[in-house]
Structure prediction request, 734 residues.
Amino acid sequence: MQRIYLGLRGLALLVCLLGSSGQIFAAETNELYNFVKPLDVVGLQLQGTLLPSATAEETASGEIMRRLTFKSVAQPALRLVPQAGQWNWSGAAAMTLRVQNAMAWAVTLDVEIESAGGKRLRARIVLPAGPAQTLIMPLTATSPLAHGMRAGPPMPWVKDGQRLLLAETVEGELAAEQILAVTLSMPQPDSPQSILLARFGTRQNDLHSPLYERLVDTFGQYTRASWPEKGTDLQQLKAAAAQEQKQLKGWLAQRPATDRFGGLLNGPRFDASGFFRTSKLGDRWYLVTPEGHGFFSLGVNTVSAEHSKTYVEGREAMFASLPAEGEPLAAFYGNDDNRSANGANRGRAFDHGRWYDFYNANRLRMHGSAELPQWRAASLDRLQAWGFNTLGNWSDPAFAGNQRVPYTRPLSIQGDFSSIHTGDDWWGGMPDPFDPRFAMAAERSIAIASRDLRDDPWLIGYFADNELAWAAPGTDAHARYALAYATLRLTTDVPAKRAFLKQLRDKYRNQNGISKAWGIDLQAWELMEDPGFEAPLPDPAHPQIEKDLQGFLRLYADAYFKTIAEALEWHAPNQLLLGGRFSITTPEAVASCAKYCDVLSFNFYTPTPQAGYDWEVLRQLDKPVLVSEFHFGSRDRGPFWAGVSQVYREEDRGSAYASFLSAALKEPQLVGVHWFQYIDQPVTGRLLDGENGHLGLIGITDLPFRGFVGSVRKANLSMPGKLLPGASSKPAAP
Prediction:
C-alpha cells in the first residue's frame, strides 16, 4: 500500500478552481480537502491505484482536476483518512466529492465511509461519462423505497445549473462524530479505469427532498426529461391517438392468415380436440389449437387497465398537478392498503392510503370515456395488429369470452394453511402442501377460477401460482436447500416438518442411523422435533445429507403439484396446467412440475431463453416449455426502473426482443413467450410493491412506443417462417 501526504504547497495558481462550479453550494458545504489545491493535510492510501502527486489537468469545461487510475486488480481503492484523529461530521447531512469520469463509458464506484465501532455506510455509484459532477452521499441509510418506489430519478440531476449525482441507495449506519476514513474503490476492472477528482467535503443538506419534488406532470409523466412519445398537451395526445388508429387499421388488414384461434395453417395438422392441448411431432413440441393447428403463443402479460394506480397520500409534493375534489378527474382517486412483510415490499414507504389512476384519467381526457368495454376492444385490436396471439397472466378477467384472442388464467391459492419461510419470501412464504387446509384451499380456489370457463375453447390453461420461493437467492447450499433447512427449524405442529421427519424416520429408524449417515451426534430423535434444529451442510464425507435434502424437496414438490393437478383435472379437465412460472427454483421442483403439469413455465429475464436454465436438463424431462415472462426495459422514456433485463436505451429494446424471440424459435421444446407487460408502470410506483419500470408496449398516456412496437410487430410476424419454413404469411381475410 502506497501512502501519500499532501500539505500546503504548489499549485497556488489554481485558486480559480473554486469558480462558479462550487459557489452555488459554498454556503452549505464544508471543504475538507482539494485534490488539486491541497489546503489541509490529508492522508491518502493507495491500493491498486495511481494518483500522481503533483499533476493536474484541465477538463473540456475548463475545470482543473486530478486523475486517479484504478488498475486491473481485485478492488483497487483510494482511502482518505485524517492525518490525525477523526473527522466530526455530526453537523453534516452528506459527504460531497467533485468527480468526473475520464472514460468514454460509465464506470461503477463503490463508496464506503468508515466510523468508530466498526460502523460503515456503503453506496454503489454508476458514474456516467461526461462533464464533472458533484457526488452527494447521505450520512444515513436511504433508498428509493423510502420514497415509495423501486428506483429513483435518473442521475445526474441538474439543479440550479449544477450537475449532481446523488447516491440512490445507501446501506449501513454511521457514527458521524467519529469518521475514520472514506474509501473509493472499483469492483475488479477488466482494464485500467480513470476518474478525475477535485473537492472533497461535507454539506448540511443531502438534497434528496428537493430531488423528489414535482416529478410527475398532470398526465402522470416524468417532468425532467423529454422523449418522442411524451405528451405536451391534450391536443397533441389526441392527434397521436388518431394517427395510431389509422395505422392499426392498415396493420390489421395485413395480418397473416391463421385458423380462428391463431393456429398456423401451413404447419403440421393434428387431431382437433375442441380445446387447446400439447403434442410432439418429431423433436418439436407444439401447442395445438382447438381446430388442430400448431400454435406458438406470443403473449402479453397484465393486459389490464387496473394496474396503473400509484399512491399519492403523504407524498403529494411529488406531483405537479393533482385534481381537486369535485373536478371530473377526481373520480380516479381511491384507497388501498399494500402493507406486507414480503420481500417485494420490505423497507418501502408510502404503501397504503389514497392513490390516483393517471392512466384511466388520461383515457377520459383523450377519448371522452374511460369505459372498459371500449378499452378491451381497442387492446385486442392492438395485440392482433402487433402480431400477438395470447392474453398472458393477470390480464383483465373480462377478456374471457372475447372470441378473438386466446387467454390464460392464474391460480392463486390462498387460505389459512401453514407456510414455510425461506428467508427471502419475495411474494410470501411457501404454501405447505402437507397441510390438509392447503388441499381444501386449492380445491376452492380452482373451483372459483374455473367456474363458467371449463367449456371455453379460447382458454389455453392455468398457471400454478407465480415465482414461489423453491430456493433462496444465492448459490451456496443454504440457498439451494433453504426450503428443507427452514422446515426442520419449525415446530412439529407444522405438517411439512412432520412429513420430513417421517421420511427420515422411515429411512433411518432412529437417532443412531441418522447420526451415522449425517456425521452428527444426535442423542435423541426428539431433538430433531425441537424448534430451531439446524441440519448439517452437505458434506462429501457424508453424501446422505444432500440426498436427504433433495429427497424432501421431491416429496414437497410432488405434494404441491399433485394437489393442484388433481383439483384442476376435476374442475377444468379441458384446459392445460401451464406450470409454476419458476423464477428461483430447484431441479426437484422442475422435475415434479414436469410430472404433473402439461407445460413447464419459467420467468426468464435473460438475453435469450437458453441463458435462463440448463436446457440439457429440460430436454431430458421432454416437456413443452413456455417463457411466461420476459422483458427488456430502459430508463429513457419516463419511469425510473429499467426492469430485470435492462438495455441502455429505448432503441435497443426492439432488437433485444427480436433476438430473444429468434432464439426461442430455435428451441424445439419452446411453445411460446410472453412479454411483461402491456402498460408502463407508474413513475412513482405501482400499488403492489412500488415497481416503476419502463417495460410497456404503451405508456401512461395510452399511446404506444412507436419504434419499439414496430420492431416487435416485425419480429412477431416473422415467427411462422422461422418456426416452420413455408408456413403461411398470406394476409388474413378481412
Notes: Residues 419-571 form one domain.
